[in-house]
Amino acid sequence: MSAQHLQALFDTLDYLGTLKESNDIKIWSRMLEKTSAALSAESGVYYFFDTLARQLVPFYTVGGEMQAGQSKGSALGDGICGWVAKYREPLLVPDATKDDRFNKEIDRCPGGESRTVLAVPLFVQFDFVGVFEFFNKSGGPFEEGDRKLAQTMAQQACHAIRRLRLEDTVSRVTAYNASILENLSGGFLAVDLQNRVMICNPAARRILDIHTEPVGHPAEEVLGAVIELASVLRTTLTSKQTAKRQELHWNLRGEKRVLGYSTLLIRDTQGVFAGAGVTFQDLTGLKS
């Protein structure tokens, strides 16, 4: 890899590392600019794949304007870009006019004539999403090193888009779950494997009369006023056995209180045991 290619890759990684939101079209368009510059290409076109129409649609160009009629969608297999879309493989064409796959209407260099062409497929995970097509490298035809660079930069963009999508999904799910916990009428408290509080919803704070920030602190410290509940959680952690519809009697500032509770086991996304939780209601009024 040349020093120019290496610097372009570093620049790409820096750019992708700063992204905070998942906007696929915007990211691919910016990557077209960066890759075209790194390849010293005269121009480049980003085609997105319209999954409903099963067509490649030119969306963004660098180094020139699309000619009349070139903005239409084209079928898979038509032209060099269509061949790449159909077979999901990159294509390096040293002399476009001598290649049977070249279509002068579809593969026309924006603002000029196509001499040498490089096209690479774009994926997000295993989903085909489009094609980059580059035209007329300065100083000669595109080479194998250019093909490797274009593919590597596209792969890095793929990884970044996937990461951003996952982060966005996690954020939405977290917000949704937090909203549910915030609005529960009953209490919910969860601890990790070290018996430190991970979650304590507003109802739990109200029912248990907790006035300080509980998250991150040992359950015995947080539940000092109702130490029996801390023992319930520790027993659930050590035995990995849950309890259903149990009652617990305790005192709050000299007043006798009754909790109805059930415990549960918490597992991570891989199914590994990660902690214990307890849901509870204040049954004092019902038991008096």
Structure description:
The chain has 288 residues and is of the alpha+beta class. It folds into two domains: 3-173, Beta-Lactamase; 184-287, 2-Layer Sandwich (Beta-Lactamase), CATH 3.30.450. The protein has helices spanning 3-17, 24-38, 79-87, 144-183, 202-208, 219-222, 227-239, 284-287, and strands at 41-50, 55-62, 74-75, 91-93, 117-124, 127-137, 187-192, 197-200, 246-252, 255-267, 273-282. The strands form two sheets. A six-stranded antiparallel beta sheet has the order 3-2-1-6-5-4, sandwiched between helices. A five-stranded antiparallel beta sheet has the order 8-7-11-10-9. Strand 5 (117-124) and strand 6 (127-137) form a beta hairpin. The longest helix is centred in the middle third of the chain and has 40 residues, at 144-183. It is rod-shaped and about 90 Å long. The model has no long low-confidence stretch (mean pLDDT 88).
